[in-house]
User: Fold Flavodoxin family protein from Acetobacter thailandicus.
Amino acid sequence: MSKISIVYHSGYGHTKVVADHIAKGSGGALVIIDANGDITEADWETLNSSDAIIMGAPTYMGNVSWQFKKFADATSKIWFTGGWKDKIFGGFTNSASPSGDKQVSLIYLQTLASQHGGIWVSLGLPPSNTKAATSDDTNNLGGSVGLLVRSPADASVDEVHKGDLLTAELYGRRIADITSRLK
Ligand SMILES: Cc1cc2nc3c(=O)[nH]c(=O)nc-3n(C[C@H](O)[C@H](O)[C@H](O)COP(=O)(O)O)c2cc1C
Assistant:
């Protein structure tokens, strides 16, 4: 059985809902980056012993939140020893605008995974981009590198788009499938 972790930061709860759906799809364990950008020692052990690490953060001011970046910088200790080399990685971000510069965050997560020598898993779903497409459809934001989610600025945590949450589950499942094949 593969071991999968989802490590994420969420300032106001919307990204947490996304992480929960990735956990549902992948069967992975959640590791929460707190408001100070920290995780516990036990969390570090969980990540170090995982076959796959899925990383997520809200997009704030055009990139991942500072709390996620603090976590990312703390992984440099692991980078020195190549501790996460050849692990499977995926990533997700969530923000208010349809674009909102989410792609910058996603490329950052992919770069972080690559710095660690990881194997990145793309979204692997076609875009829903016809006139008839709605936010209930999978991959309605047309991502390819990883998972993009939109939470409109006035949306409560219960109003994150259904199609995005289904996409989160499917992406989690894809990462779990690929991890078990490669293991
Ligand atoms: C400090 C700050 C900066 C933000 N910057 C952006 C941004 O650059 N692009 C965008 O689309 N939304 C932006 N937003 C909106 C958030 O990404 C959005 O509310 C998201 O759902 C927050 O996720 P969370 O509830 O997990 O913290 C910003 C929100 C905050 C608080």
Notes: DSSP finds six helices and seven strands in the chain.
